[in-house]
Amino acid sequence: MPRVCFIVNPIAGRGQALERWRQIEPLAARLGEYGVKFTERPGHGTDLARLAIQEGYDRVVSIGGDGTLNEVGNGLVGTDAALAVIPAGRGNDWVRTAGVPTDAAEGCRLAFGGRVARMDVGLAHGYRYFFNAAGFGFDAEVCARVNTYGQRFPKFSYVRGVFDTLFHFTGVRVDVEIDGERRRLNRVLLLEVGIGRYFGGGMQVFPQADIADGLFEIAWGEDLGRLELIRLVSLIYSGRHVGHPKVRMARGRKLTADSPEKVVIQLDGEVVGHLPVTFEILPGALNVVLPG
Question: Residue ranges of the DAGKc domain (predicted)?
Fold first, then answer.
């Protein structure tokens, strides 16, 4: 039986992560050898994950939202330890793709008994790793607003972020290069680079995404009017935007982007900086615990 370390973000989901840990701690004690650590500051999850490896744990469990998952995963990339996830925050988009249970007890059992598989990892050069999606334009502007609203309106922060951005963001000029092929996007509303299928609390941006195929899924929308964008956002939730005449889809291993404008970028739903940026995929760079 593996040694399992739980890393809990006590403020994720307005305390939901801490409550979930309290619910499952007796179960963890019955299932096997475990330890627990609590994050105390931004970025602490990465430090705690590295400490767990030094202490000999085989599996490290993120209990929190997408941001906690990103921090813990950043401490595990390139190691033999495996990442497990018990969701307890906003978004939880990677969980949807991976088929990880949302029930805390089921997630705890999975952490001890699930199978280990390798998944691809994204690297934003100069920043950090990401595990679900990264991008700029509309999605990053939404993230910036969601992070502002989240503490006050946690249930509606994504919806409010989307609608506020719809009425205030008009697009930017961006030069991109995908695996050596250069493109100029004159009024790009968004560009998303994905490993998982979902982003933004359930928007199915990449219906065909595979977390272990060694490729990014890439999507961008250009020259969209406000009404067109509103319709497009409604289509994205069900994945029906694929084939839209103003949506472009591609696959690639490396994407570089720059702009004369100040363009925000996000990694796994967290705003980290501005263009220029280079995204590169690292095939099979992280062990993860999955059902089955």
Answer: 1-129
Q: Model-level pTM? A: 0.92
Q: What is the mean pLDDT of residues 98-111?
A: 96
Tokens for 261, please give them.
Answer: 């404008």
What integer is the mean pLDDT of 249-274?
95
Given the candidates 2.60.40.3230, 2.60.200.40, 3.10.310.30, 3.30.980.10, the CATH classification of the domain at 129-283 is 2.60.200.40
Instruction: Please check the confidence at residue 97 and state whether its pLDDT lies above 80.
Output: yes
Question: Alpha carbon 228 to chain centroid distance?
Answer: 26
When the candidates are 3.30.930.10, 3.30.450.20, 2.60.40.10, 3.40.50.10330, the CATH number that belongs to 4-113 is: 3.40.50.10330
Query: Using DSSP, how many helices (H) and how many strands (E) does the chain show?
Result: 8, 15
- Asked if 81 and 55 count as a contact pair (C-beta separation under 8 A), the reply is no
Token reading at 182: 């250069």
